[in-house]
Design a protein that fits this description.
There is one protein chain. The protein is of the alpha+beta class. The chain folds into three domains: about 230 residues, 4-Layer Sandwich (Glutamine Phosphoribosylpyrophosphate, subunit 1, domain 1), CATH 3.60.20.10; about 210 residues, Rossmann fold (3-Layer(aba) Sandwich); about 100 residues, no CATH class. The protein is about 40% helix and about 15% strand. It contains 23 helices and 17 strands. The strands form three sheets. A six-stranded antiparallel β-sheet has the order 2-3-1-9-8-10. It is globular and about 65 Å long. It starts with a strand and ends with a helix.
Length: about 600
C-alpha cells in the first residue's frame, strides 16, 4: 500500500513538470508510505512520477518505485507507480516467464510492467487485486491509468488543459499548490445527501476520481481513450441469466481461495475481529490456512459495556476458540477528543463514517501490524442489511399507488415542520420517495434530502449540485436490466455505499496509520462465483472446517459501531446538536469548509 503521484505536461504550450510540485504532492502522502520514497522526471521534463512506499511485498530495495523497464541500450521504455496489491501476481509471474519475460525482482510491481509490455492496456483483464497505477510508455509517448473493479484503491486526477496531475489523495493534489479549489456543488450536495462524496465527484470542481473498473489512456497530444473493463451491473445480468449449480464444497473453496490470496505478504497479517459473522468467518478461514498463529484485535468502548453493542467479550471467546494471539483495546471519549483534529486532517474527503476504522487501524498499527484483514463486503454480498428487506417492501406496498410521488410531496410540505421535532425530517418524504428502488434507497440511506439542504447551503448552489448529481436517475441506472429485488439492492449497496464510503474510509483511515486494510469479501472473482447463488452469511459461517459456534451465528446483527455522538455531546462540541449522524456531518463539513 502506497501513495503515488504523476504529472504529465501533454499540451504543447503546457509548462514543464515542476519537480518541486511533484515532491510536495508526494510528501503530503508520507503516512501512506513511510518505508521509502522515489521520483523520476523524463529528460524532456514532460513527465514526472513519484511514490511513497509501504513495503509489503519484496520489501527490500528491489521493490522500490518508480520502477522501470529499460531497452537493450539502457534507455527507459516504461515507468510505473503503483498503489495496492496484485493477489495473483505469482501465477501471473510464472505465466510471463513461460512467455519469455526475465524478472529481476520478486515484486508484484514488476509483474504489472511485464504484463503491460506484453498485453498493453488489456493487461487489466488479467489482474486480481486492489490497485491503482500509472504507467508511462516512452515509445508511445502516453500514460495509462487504471483502477481495480471495486474501486478499493483511489486514484484522483486534475486536468485543467495541457497538464494532467494524478495522486492517491485529493488533499495531496491540493498540497502541490497548482490545482484550483473552486467547489463542486455536486460534491458538497452529495456529501450532505449521502454522508459521503459520490464518485466521480470530489469537493472540488477540477478534481475527479477515475471510475472503478476503468482504465484511461492519454497520449502526448492530449488524445484519450477510457475503457470500462469491469461493470458489476453487466456481471449481475449475466449471473441472473446463467445460474449454474454451485455446491457447498465449491462455495467453501471460493472463500478459502480469496482468503488465502489476501494473506499473501512478506510481513505479518492480522485480522480485525468483531463478534459479527463477516470478520469472524474470515478469521476462522485465515486461521485454518495460515502457517503461523494469527494476530487478532477488537475495540471496546465503555459506553457499550454490558450491552448488546459490546462485541469485545464474544470476540475474545472466538479468538480463544481459534487460538489467535488476541488483543482487546479500549477507546474512550477522551481518546476521540484528543485524536479528533488528527482524524479530520487524515480524512481525505468528508464522510460521516470511518471513525471506527481510524481507531481500529490505529490500535492495529500500535500492535506492530502493517496489514490487516477486514470483513467489509459480507453484507453487500449476502444481503445482510435491513435495506434488502425494507426497500423492496416499501416499493411493493406503497410505490404502486398512482400519483404517490405528487401526493408524497404535499405530505412532506405539510408534515416536515412537525416531524423535524420528533425524528429525522427526511421521513416526511416517506411517500414521496417510495415509488422506485432508487428513491427508496435514497430515503433509506440518505442523510439529508434535497429539500432540507437550503437550510445551510445557498439555494442556487444546491440546485446546481442536485442537477449535476442526477441522483435518483443514477441510482436507478445502477441496476438497469437486473430483475431480482435482492440483486438490485446488492448493486446499490456495493456501488454506492460500500465503494464510496466503506472502502474509501478503509483507505484513508488505514493509511493514516500506515496500515494496509485488505477485504477478502470484496473481490470481483469471488463476486462472479457466488453472487446470485442463494448462499447466506450463515453458510459462510459454517464453511470453515471448525464452523463458528451457534451463539455467534445466532447473535443479532449490530454492525461495527462507535459512540461518536455520545462523545461529541459529552464534550459540548456544538450546541443545538442535530439528531444522529447529522451533527457529526456538520462538524466534518465545517472542517473542510475552513481548511
Amino acid at each position: 500500500m502506497c501513495g503515488l503521484t504523476a504529472i504529465f505536461s501533454y499540451g504543447n504550450s503546457a509548462a514543464l513538470v515542476d519537480e518541486a510540485e511533484l515532491l510536495r504532492i508526494r510528501e503530503a502522502m508520507i503516512a501512506r508510505g513511510p518505508d521509502g520514497a522515489g521520483s523520476w522526471v523524463s529528460t524532456d521534463q514532460r513527465v514526472g512520477l513519484a511514490h511513497r512506499r509501504l513495503a509489503i511485498i519484496d520489501v527490500g530495495i528491489t521493490g522500490a518505485q518508480p520502477m522501470e523497464l529499460r531497452d537493450g541500450a539502457g534507455n527507459t521504455r516504461l515507468q510505473i507507480v503503483f498503489n495496492g496489491e496484485i493477489y495473483n501476481f505469482k501465477q501471473l509471474r510464472a505465466d510471463m516467464i513461460t512467455k519469455g519475460s526475465v524478472f529481476t525482482t520478486n515484486s508484484d510491481t514488476e509483474v504489472l510492467l511485464r504484463l503491460y509490455d506484453y498485453y498493453g492496456i488489456d493487461m487489466v483483464e488479467h489482474l486480481r487485486g486492489m490497485f491503482a497505477f500509472v504507467i508511462w510508455d516512452e515509445a508511445k509517448k502516453g500514460m495509462l491509468l487504471a483502477r481495480d473493479p471495486y474501486g478499493i484503491k483511489p486514484l484522483y486526477y486534475n486536468d485543467e488543459g495541457g497538464t494532467l496531475r494524478i495522486a492517491s489523495q485529493v488533499k495531496a493534489l491540493l498540497a502541490g499548490g497548482a490545482v484550483s479549489t473552486i467547489p463542486d456543488p455536486a460534491g458538497h450536495v452529495g456529501f450532505f445527501t449521502l454522508g459521503y462524496v459520490p464518485e466521480p465527484h470530489t469537493m472540488y470542481e477540477k478534481i475527479q476520481s477515475l471510475p472503478a473498473g476503468t482504465s484511461l489512456w492519454i497520449g502526448r497530444g492530449g488524445q484519450r481513450s477510457q475503457n470500462t473493463y469491469f461493470n458489476f451491473r453487466s456481471q449481475m445480468t449475466i449471473l441472473e441469466s446463467t445460474s449454474p449449480n454451485f455446491s457447498k464444497e465449491e462455495f467453501r473453496e471460493a472463500l478459502i481461495e480469496t482468503t488465502e490470496l489476501h494473506l499473501i505478504s512478506d510481513v505479518p497479517v492480522g485480522v480485525f475481529l468483531s463478534a459479527g459473522l463477516d470478520s469472524a468467518s474470515i478469521m476462522a478461514l485465515a486461521a485454518e490456512i495460515a502457517v503461523e498463529q494469527m494476530e487478532t484485535m477488537t475495540l471496546r468502548f465503555d459506553e457499550f459495556a454490558n450491552s448488546r453493542l459490546d462485541e469485545a467479550p464474544m470476540a475474545a471467546d472466538i479468538a480463544k476458540l481459534y487460538n489467535t494471539r488476541h488483543q482487546t483495546r479500549t477507546v474512550k471519549g477522551a481518546d476521540f477528543i484528543q485524536e479528533k483534529d488528527k482524524l479530520l486532517r487524515a480524512m481525505d474527503q468528508p464522510t460521516i463514517d470511518g471513525v471506527n476504522t481510524y481507531f481500529v487501524a490505529k490500535e492495529a498499527a500500535d500492535m506492530g501490524l502493517k496489514v490487516a484483514l477486514s470483513g467489509v463486503g459480507g453484507d453487500e454480498l449476502f444481503g445482510g442489511y435491513d435495506s434488502f428487506r425494507q426497500i423492496p417492501s416499501l416499493v411493493r406496498n406503497i410505490g404502486w399507488i398512482p400519483g404517490i410521488g405528487e401526493l408524497g410531496t404535499a405530505f412532506r410540505v405539510l408534515s416536515g415542520p412537525i416531524l423535524k421535532h420528533l425524528t429525522s425530517p427526511k421521513y416526511a418524504s416517506f411517500f414521496e420517495y417510495s415509488g422506485d428502488y432508487g428513491s427508496a434507497y435514497l430515503l433509506r440511506r440518505g442523510l439529508f434530502l434535497p429539500w432540507e439542504l437550503t437550510n445551510f447551503l445557498e439555494p442556487e448552489f444546491v440546485q446546481k449540485g442536485w442537477r449535476d448529481l442526477n441522483l435518483r436517475q443514477n441510482l436507478n441506472m445502477t441496476f438497469d436490466g437486473v430483475n431480482q429485488p435482492h440483486n438490485k439492492i446488492a448493486l446499490l449497496e456495493s456501488i454506492w455505499y460500500m465503494r464510496n464510503q466503506l472502502l474509501r474510509d478503509a483507505d484513508w483511515a488505514g493509511m493514516a496509520h500506515s496500515l494496509e486494510i485488505r477485504t477478502p469479501l470484496v473481490d470481483a472473482t469471488l463476486f462472479g462465483k457466488i453472487a446470485n447463488r442463494g448462499y447466506s452469511k450463515y453458510d459462510m459461517a459454517l464453511s470453515p472446517k471448525m464452523p463458528l459456534p451457534t451463539n455467534v451465528i445466532k447473535r443479532p446483527k449490530t454492525g461495527f459501531g462507535i459512540p461518536v455522538r455520545n462523545w461529541l455531546l459529552d464534550n459540548n462540541v456544538r450546541s443545538g446538536f442535530d439528531r444522529g449522524e447529522r451533527g457529526w456531518a456538520r462538524t466534518v463539513y465545517e472542517n473542510f469548509s475552513t481548511a
